[in-house]
User: Which sequence fits this backbone?
């Protein structure tokens, strides 16, 4: 069955960096676009970044929310069936649970990984 497992979250000071991973299984990973979302306490889940499938995984196929543009980088390793989110210059407002998502006719989510940015 389809599984998405996020990891790499933690507590970091403002200005710090983290790299999130999303290990995917149960589908042909390279053939599908992938997305990162986040949900802060008391707020709705919001889209963070997206990356195209193997045919469209170049820079033109990477998209970002305005709030993270220039600080976050989405990438994928199709040999490892893994999606990444490199987060630099983190701010307290980046604090949230981060989720990866794939749409295969229906939508699948991982369980999320907590990112806390605090001094």
Assistant:
């Amino acid at each position: 069955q389809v599984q998405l497992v996020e990891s790499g979250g933690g507590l970091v000071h403002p200005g710090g960096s983290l790299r999130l991973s999303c290990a995917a299984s149960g589908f042909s990973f390279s053939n599908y676009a992938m997305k990162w979302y986040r949900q802060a306490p008391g707020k709705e889940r919001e889209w963070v970044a997206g990356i195209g499938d193997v045919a469209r995984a170049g820079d033109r196929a990477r998209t970002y929310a305005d709030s993270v543009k220039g600080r976050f980088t989405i990438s994928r390793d199709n040999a490892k069936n893994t999606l990444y989110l490199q987060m630099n210059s983190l701010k307290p407002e980046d604090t949230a649970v981060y989720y990866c998502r794939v749409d295969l006719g229906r939508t699948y989510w991982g369980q999320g990984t907590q990112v806390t940015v605090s001094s």
Summary: The chain has a mean pLDDT of 94.
